[in-house]
Design brief:
The protein is of the alpha/beta class and 229 residues long. The protein has 2 domains: 145 residues, Rossmann fold, CATH 3.40.50.1000; 71 residues, DNA polymerase, domain 1 (Orthogonal Bundle). Helix content is 44%, strand content 12%. It has a 6-stranded parallel β-sheet with strand order 5-4-1-6-7-8. A two-stranded antiparallel ribbon has the order 2-3. Helix 1 packs across helix 5. The chain is globular. The two termini are 21 Å apart.
Amino acid sequence: MTQKFTILFDLDGTLVDTAPDLMKAHNHVMKKFGYKTKTTDEIRAIVGKGARALLGRSIWGEAKKEFGKIEDENIKDEMVKEFIDYYGKNIINESKLINGVEEFLKWCSSKKISMGVCTNKQEHLAIDLLKKIKIYDYFEYVAGGNTFEVCKPDPRHLINIVEILNGDIKKTLMIGDSENDTIPAKEASIPVILLDNGYTEKNVDEIYYDHLVEDFIGIEKIVSQYLND
């Protein structure tokens, strides 16, 4: 059944503040392999492109591309596996919903809006997080970074979900917190609601968006404008 409207959501930093648990998983790996740890705020600046990219960007920033200089791919793979294993076992210790998320999801559901999640987190981790934080049932489809052959910032990551939901790109919104969400949305001609203070090292004035919000409180007013078009 084709729904009236579709909203795609990023996960980390958009629906859920996952940085505290990501930080602990990251630091667990860094300590084990002899690299520097990071604070939660530092982690927020490098999240969004998957576990391998998170570790690579972390070491790249502190150690002159040392992750890229590790010639043994098995060591890199071991670091990523260690991160995913640790994080998967500690995925919701300190993670919390962004302010207003559940109320907004309930409102969308009442309006029969079709909702999907588009994240670069591995699919099984995304689903597990959504289930444990008790908002999974609001979504008709969850696509992780390993669901398709492409992932954000490739616009096909978004487009594929809209097609699976039998949606219409012209009746779709993207809600995210970084350029990793807004770049593919812009390329797919999907309007973007951007959360301020997202998981990115960029300033908000460096990121494309159609609407800027602090959290989910009151964004029904923005979405209603598109529902009435």
